[in-house]
Amino acid sequence: MNQALSLSRRFVSFLLWGGLLVALSTIPACGDPTGPRAQDRHIARTVALKLPQAHLTKHPLDQEIADRAFKLFMKSLDPMKLYFYQSDIDRFAAKKSQWVELLKAGDISPAYETYSVFLQRVDERVETALKILEQPLDFTVDEEIIRDPDLLTYPKTPEEAYERWRKRIKLDLLVLKADKETTGQAAIEKLQKRYTSFRKRVHQTDEDELLETYLSAFCEAYDPHTSYMSPETLENFDITMKLELEGIGAALQSEDGYVVVKKLIPGGAAAKDGRLKIDDKIVGVGQGETGEIVDVVDMNLSDVVKLIRGKRGTVVRLEVLPADGGPKKLITITRERIELKDSEAKGQVFEAGQKPNGQPYRIGVIDLPSFYMDMSGARLGIPEFRSTTRDVRRILESFNQQGVDAVVLDLRRNGGGSLQEAINLTGLFIESGPVVQVKDSVGRIMVYDDEDTSIVWRGPLIVVISKFSASASEILAGAIQDHRRGIIVGDQSTHGKGTVQSLIDLGQELFRLPNAPPLGALKLTIQQFYRPNGESTQNRGVIADIEIPSLTNHLEGIAESDLDYALPFDQIRPAQYKPYSDVDSSVIEYLKRRSEERVQNSPDFQKVKADIQRYLAQREKKSVPLMEEKFMAQVKELNADKEEEKRLKALTEGNEEGIERDYYLDEVLQIMVDYLQYRVIAQAR
């Protein structure tokens, strides 16, 4: 999902050159690894034991898995086939038949052998790139570069590699010019810096990150959601789930060797201090009032984050190059506990339509980006640990006090989270009954009911979905649809992730001690979700009752079915439940017809449809022109309407100021108004 989200943030770029842009960003920025450590052997053996034993499919760790892992590992290092020669791949492939037995013995030497060659090839390619940048490039030549990695082969000779990089550099220069970043000698210098910084970053590999990449290739050979999480990744996962961390409250990004401030979290230490600004570059970090300032230019971003993040009440000093071009300055900030507000539930009341008495309808909208729960707080028995259900309950109770007429629950950017929270949250809208069925690896089926007979919101309900809505989102949407408790509106279907993952702490697994060393965790698919009606959400997703035109419905690489080795859809016997009478086929048909009429007459949605047609036409093209005239003509066409790009960015990133009422949400509100008016007419009959 993360790659898909990042692509949507650069809509026009994605349409033009797609996967080419990620070739320099998906490789693990990890310092030259010196070789497997003793602990790596224990971790690898445990992963090799647990995968076939505990995975949902019970698939043996065999040659088929080795073949899949090989492809995934090579793809993770060199997705656009820019670095390795075909002879490198052939040499690695000749040994892949040994990979399984080596892994079972705890031997991860293939990872180091492969990465060593990768570093050598990166050095060679960067030197080639720097030489190409010293030469004049002709942008009047009618040539193109392939954008679909599946159509590419690895270069066989240095001449082929040179030619691929010559075209790659032409593309990079055209992109800089099209984005109006820079041109001429400044653009050349920018690319020189970019390639050199990239080379430095891949030589900053550490053993944890290489181990994670290699073991995750075996894990993802079972399904896309099984993975090995290094201690650092596990820590970040825990932060995401409990929506808080300790630090300065700034989102950082690595750009051409610099650590750039991309976002300041409202209420965080940096935002309250006021001196650190968006697009400032952090070039040095010092601990405490007097600690040495460490130069962080070209440093791995995760290492910089470690230096800046720390316990509340401690001091960090940042050496900063201001975005406005002013002189370098030193900023001292005291770290605080940061609540990640942009990931928590938000509620807002909007007015729309007209009641029979002439007053507008009041519709409460809840934006829910994830199903979060402070897992460590729950384990420790902290009474008020952070919970999605608690937050949404408070919002619904507020809506009740304000006398809202209907509720819209927006899950468009909700990638899932806690299964228990999805069950509990569904219970706020139904009295009781099954929410989800779960089947394990031996075929046992468990039905999870809402056992709390209270209902917080009894009135009309719409759930808004997109292809980004995954996992726990799909459980809630499917249950609401099956119970006929509300109407599902949005993209044609949700993401299609219908599996349950469990975390196995490998330190605890190996040492069985309270203070076991941090060895990361195995995130393992152990069960599959099924709706109350017996249908899996896996691969197919939840189908909307009413579809609203959106580019997200057509983006490739988003849905579960687009992912490598995704598990198939299937069905089990329906659970026992009695649906409500809130929704039936007649009301759906009425609302669908009314919505289609509005969309047909809406200039905004006609622009969306035009964007979709441009995207679909562009997706069919497997290459990008490198003649400047043709390239810029494509850019001009795709830049004709930027509104959809803005909406996609708002969808994936959220809005800190509140819930924005754009043309899309307005259509959702109009569907709700139609629904409310239909109910009035139906009750009068």
As a percent range, the share of strand residues is 15-25%
Tally of structural domains: 3
Low-confidence stretches: 1-30
From the spread of the alpha carbons, the general shape counts as: globular
| CATH H-level homologous superfamily name of the largest domain | 2-enoyl-CoA Hydratase, Chain A, domain 1
Please provide a written account of the structure:
The chain has 685 residues and is α+β, with helices and mostly antiparallel strands. It folds into three domains: 2-222, no CATH class; 244-339, Roll (Pdz3 Domain), CATH 2.30.42.10; 344-517 and 527-684, 2-enoyl-CoA Hydratase, Chain A, domain 1 (Alpha-Beta Complex). Helix content is 42%, strand content 16%. Helix 7 crosses helix 8, helix 7 runs antiparallel to helix 9 and helix 15 runs parallel beside helix 16.
